[in-house]
Write a structure and sequence with these properties.
The protein is of the alpha+beta class. It folds into two domains: about 100 residues, no CATH class; about 170 residues, no CATH class. It contains ten helices and 16 strands. The protein has a four-stranded antiparallel beta sheet with strand order 3-4-5-6. A four-stranded antiparallel beta sheet has the order 8-7-9-15. The chain has a four-stranded antiparallel beta sheet with strand order 12-14-13-16, sandwiched between helices. Strand 4 and strand 5 form a beta hairpin. Helix 3 runs parallel beside helix 4 and helix 4 crosses helix 5. The longest helix is centred in the last third of the chain and has 16 residues. It is elongated. It starts with a helix and ends in a 7-residue tail after the last strand.
């Protein structure tokens, strides 16, 4: 019996008329009653509409100095209008109501029409907890984090992009980044970097840093740009790229390169094939050769200090 009443209530709710353009048109004779209501606000002692079938004769337009230039017709079960003098003054009944009520928000306008014309259409209230029943399709990009030195191939934790971003933009790596950039000898610089910089494998979570030990791909691809003469210019170009959204972008330890982290779709092609396609795209678009090591899924990426690093808002910690 309880299920029977539940079915009755569900049916009643589903059949109730809720506020919408379609239901408002049904209750206002295709919207003609809305035109009449608005016009009566300006000309309360006049006959504002003369209906002839589905058309109305010319009437006064309060938005054209009260001139008799307003033509209203019903087309495809909706009232529309135009002005015989003002070529840009045309639209449907909701556009006309928007002029009068000075409302551009769709929901606010429909609510106002419902209230002012006493249509008594149900205002459907959203269940504040309805989101609990919706599928969680949020994308979380997980990577492995490794403590220096580079010979340490076992990760210490599983991290998300906002955690990496926080470490890059904080002072955590500021001192070692400054020390590294002060080293002039290339051999000494390589040795210092390998021994002092923590690193991540952006493309996934690993039990050990090698391609065969991948646990979960992150759908991220790392593109390295080295020895740039126009670093800031390229940075803005990448952030505004037409085809790829930037998930994370920061300056490399040397201060002369960029680390560009983008999202890739592995449902159709492999990581390696995607890298080749992106590398070709960059060559064609920006005339820049990228570091080919990015095609390795377990590619290590050193974390340096960059207070101006960019993180896409979808990853920002709330």
């Amino acid at each position: 019996m309880r299920n029977y009443y539940r079915a009755i209530i569900t049916t009643q709710i589903s059949n109730a008329m809720v506020i919408s353009r379609e239901n408002i048109l049904k209750k206002t004779h295709y919207g003609l009653n809305i035109y009449a209501y608005v016009l009566r606000q300006y000309y309360p002692k006049s006959t504002v509409l003369s209906l002839k079938g589905r058309d109305c004769g010319i009437t006064r337009n309060p938005f054209n100095g009260g001139k008799s230039t307003l033509q209203i017709n019903v087309i495809d079960n909706k009232a529309v209008h135009y002005d015989t003098e003002l070529t840009d003054f045309k639209g449907d009944v909701f556009d006309f109501a928007s002029y009068h009520f000075k409302l551009v928000d769709e929901e606010e306008l429909l609510l106002k029409i419902n209230t002012e014309l006493h249509l008594n259409i149900e205002v459907k209230k959203e269940n504040e907890l309805s989101w609990l029943n919706e599928p969680d399709d949020t994308w979380y990009a997980y990577s492995s984090f490794y403590k220096a030195p580079i010979r340490n191939v076992f990760p210490t934790e599983k991290v998300r992009l906002h955690q990496i971003f926080e470490r890059i933009t904080s002072d955590k790596y500021k001192s070692i980044t400054e020390q590294f950039r002060a080293i002039k000898d290339p051999k000494e610089a390589r040795k210092f970097k390998a021994n002092h910089f923590d690193y991540v494998t952006f493309s996934g979570v690993f039990s050990k840093r090698n391609d065969d030990s991948l646990i979960e791909h992150s759908s991220l691809l790392t593109i390295d740009f080295d020895h740039l003469e126009n670093l800031e210019e390229l940075k803005q170009q990448l952030l505004n790229d037409e085809y790829f959204e930037t998930e994370l972008l920061f300056t490399s330890p040397s201060g002369e390169g960029l680390k560009w982290i983008i999202r890739i779709d592995l449902s159709q092609v492999s990581h390696n094939e995607y890298f080749i396609a992106v590398a070709n795209y960059i060559k064609q678009t920006y005339n820049i050769e990228v570091d080919q090591s990015g095609k390795d899924i377990s590619r290590a990426c050193f974390l340096s200090h960059d207070s101006l690093a960019y993180l896409h808002k979808r990853h920002q910690k709330l």
